């Protein structure tokens, strides 16, 4: 866990961070990106680990939005960030349903939270401190998460409990994506 704290410290304080800075453009757009893994191209646990990392990334950007918004739209954006952050709160449900409860896999197959956070940090994009870029970026991350969840839902032999958790995550991502996209207009 010390390595993660070092990486986060570097991320927060060093200009040579592991994230890419997106420069402001003329118009804020929500860009949909391809899923990290294609259908059934990776083992089940890697697909679920990717979804977990997506969810952690949603939480990181939602907390940035939550704590750094100000101005006349503060309250609405604050509540929107809280709603989007609920996606990250479901990581425990997915982890337990897939790796501990329903999958019944050996502990060697389970990723550590350090691995999940490292994957999330490796693919995190740092947005300029402008609410429009944060909102558009968060919408993009929600779309990617929803896309990866849909890939995970097609895994063979998923138990009903895992399918239910994935359905819940997909619904929350869809609602968040719609609200965020509408906020960008």
How many E-type strands? 2
- The largest beta-sheet arranges its strands as 1-2
In CATH, the homologous superfamily goes by the name Ferritin, core subunit, four-helix bundle
Q: How many alpha or pi helices?
A: 7
- H/E series: HEHHHHEHH
Task: Describe how the helices and strands are arranged.
Elements: H1 2-13, E1 20-21, H2 44-68, H3 74-88, H4 91-102, H5 113-122, E2 125-126, H6 131-153, H7 160-184
Parallel strand pairs: 1-2
Helix pairs in contact: 1-5, 2-3, 2-4, 2-5, 2-6, 3-7, 4-7, 6-7
Care to describe what's here?
The structure is a single chain. The protein is mainly α. The protein has a single domain (44-184), classed as Ferritin, core subunit, four-helix bundle (Ferritin), CATH 1.20.1260.10. It is 66% helix and 2% strand. The protein is built from seven helices and two strands. The chain has helices at residues 2-13, 44-68, 74-88, 91-102, 113-122, 131-153, 160-184; strands at residues 20-21, 125-126. It has a two-stranded parallel ribbon. Helix 3 (74-88) packs antiparallel against helix 7 (160-184).
Features:
single chain, 185 residues, mainly alpha, Ferritin, two-stranded parallel sheet, 2 strands, 66% helix, 2% strand, elongated
Summarize the structure.
It is built from seven helices and two strands. The chain is mainly α and 185 residues long. Strands 1-2 form a two-stranded parallel ribbon.
